[in-house]
Amino acid sequence: MTQLASAGHGDRTRSGAHGRTGFRRRWVTRVTAGEVLGFTAPAVVGAALVTAPAAVEVSALVAAGLVEGALLGAAQASVLRRSLPVLRTGWFVMATALAAATAYAVAMVPVVLGDDVASLPVPVQVAGGAVLAAALLSTIGTAQWLVLRRAVPGSVFWIPATAAAWAVGLGAFLAVSTPLWQPGRSYALTVAIGVLAALVMAVTVAVLTLPAALRLAAAGTEEHG
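^ that's the sequence the OP posted. Answer follows.
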């Protein structure tokens, strides 16, 4: 009996390890692909409207953000729903799309304000920048948590985990794109640079959110298993 119990435990351990390995692979590959494909929309729109009036550029980028968020949310949900069968996938995708669009709107606030920002006192600029940065980084995680909490109680950790991942990911994006985006670049090259930087950002975010995603999956398995 003891040998049978030990064998059964070993099989479950190996099965669990195999499942986690598969989850890691699916999460990194699908989230990366979803984000890169999704960012193609803002890359194309942004490159086309670089000289357009601010109002036109903001409206178009916010709309493109809906596309990016929808594809990212769909990619993430396709992995999570295996461990979270009660996850409302449609709501998760919609929440991510709306959050991404909101994040673009927040990011474009300085563009809309233009020179008015420079005329503000430095402490106000710093404080305003901090508020905008916090809103930008936490938007997607917060929106997703509003859906996740119904499937995984206590999943509020998802908000800071995703915010930190996006902070590093956006930093990686800027590190790649800033030196390459120069005046006079062709439209195609500008888009290509954006997609390349998005790939670096996507891999970074996928890898950094993996531990939190594994935690969600484990909690969901315990809750419903």
